[in-house]
Design a protein that fits this description.
The chain is of the alpha+beta class and 324 residues long. It has helices at residues 9-22, 29-36, 42-58, 81-84, 93-97, 99-105, 109-124, 148-157, 230-238, 256-260, 290-294, 306-323, and strands spanning 27-28, 63-67, 75-79, 160-166, 172-185, 188-195, 200-205, 209-216, 244-251, 262-269, 278-285, 300-304. Helix 1 crosses helix 3.
């Protein structure tokens, strides 16, 4: 009984992540094999299982290896909740990095069916599950950048990509990159990889990728250098965290996550609709706040700083254009 076809790599990785996350104890290797890799020969299973574990680890998923019984050497695997869980709103870089996989797949329409099917078949096999573990990734952590899917899948498949990239100066250029990982750092999503044309390691903000991402070559066309830590590379190449002081209008009864960290709140402020059921909230964010602010929809209006207000407007305009 297979949870996903062997060729459906994204679903297979998701199934493995689910299996190790929702169970409370180490999962025996043979149990993983019987449920996720049925019918495979010993050598084929070992190669695919090792490759899948490394794919998840390269995306920031902390897979732990341990012994099921001190009297036996059979290895078991799990993902510890205390290492994988994230705070409700504010994320430190190390905590946010693991979202590079989970924050997308739980809410992704194409993989939602695979998640439900994986849980159903795990239950049918007699596994004791902790489904509350799937609540760790909240919708406001979603990656709204259109390039996320293509770059994440290229990372999993080891396929070189080509895309147009806009620098902070506004200049655009074509980049040819061998992706090593997709990581969330300081509130932004980054692609870490080898810039083929510049012959050096580079990091790219997904929000600056313009247009579509083109795959160049076949899967497995390159290997990630041994010992690469994509999270450390992102911290090193993306630069230091910048603190921003935000001034917002927040509709009364909403924006609780913003209010919890507020430095100051003024009630009874006239809002953009001409009514006085808004509050002016001031707070400091060390991460890029745009994705979080967008998650509150029409209940939050950005007043300052201008660059955050303009970026929120730009992304809303782009979304409106896609849905038109």
């Amino acid at each position: 009984m297979s949870l996903a076809p062997a060729g459906a790599k994204s679903e297979r990785l998701l199934n493995l992540l689910i299996m190790l996350l929702v169970q409370r104890h180490y999962v025996p290797k043979e149990k993983i094999r019987s449920i996720l890799y049925p019918g495979m020969g010993d050598e084929a299973f070992e190669k695919m299982f090792e490759r899948d574990k490394e794919e998840l680890r390269s995306l920031g998923v902390p897979i732990e290896v341990g012994s099921l019984d001190p009297l036996f050497d059979e290895p078991g695997y799990r993902i510890r909740r205390d290492q994988f869980e994230l705070p409700e709103v504010r994320l430190e870089p190390d905590e946010a990095a693991v979202v590079s996989l989970a924050a997308k797949v739980w809410e992704h329409a194409r993989l939602a069916g695979a998640t439900a099917e994986a849980l159903r078949k795990l239950k049918a096999s007699g596994q004791v599950l902790d489904e509350s573990a799937l609540n760790i990734a909240q919708p406001h952590l979603m990656a709204e950048e259109p390039s996320f899917d293509a770059l994440w899948e290229a990372t999993c498949d080891h396929v070189q990509v080509r895309f147009s990239y806009r620098r902070a100066s506004g200049e655009e250029s074509i980049r040819n990159v061998q992706p090593w990982g997709v990581v969330r750092h300081s509130g932004r999503w980054y692609l870490v990889g080898w810039d083929v044309d510049r012959a050096e390691e580079r990091v790219f903000r997904l929000s600056r990728v313009q247009g579509s991402v083109r795959r160049i070559g076949k899967p497995g066309g390159y290997q990630v250098p041994e010992g690469v830590d994509v999270r450390a590379a992102t911290r090193r190449l993306a630069g230091a965290r910048i603190e921003r002081r935000l001034t917002l209008l927040v509709r009364v009864g909403s924006g609780h996550g913003l209010r919890r960290g507020a430095a100051a709140t003024v009630t009874g402020v006239t809002g953009p609709d001409g009514l006085t059921d808004w509050d002016r909230v001031e707070l400091v964010r060390s991460a890029d706040p745009v994705a979080e602010l967008l998650s509150y929809g029409a209940d939050v209006v950005v007043l300052e700083p201008a660059e955050v207000r303009d970026e929120v407007r730009r992304r809303l305009t782009a979304l409106a254009g896609e849905s038109a």
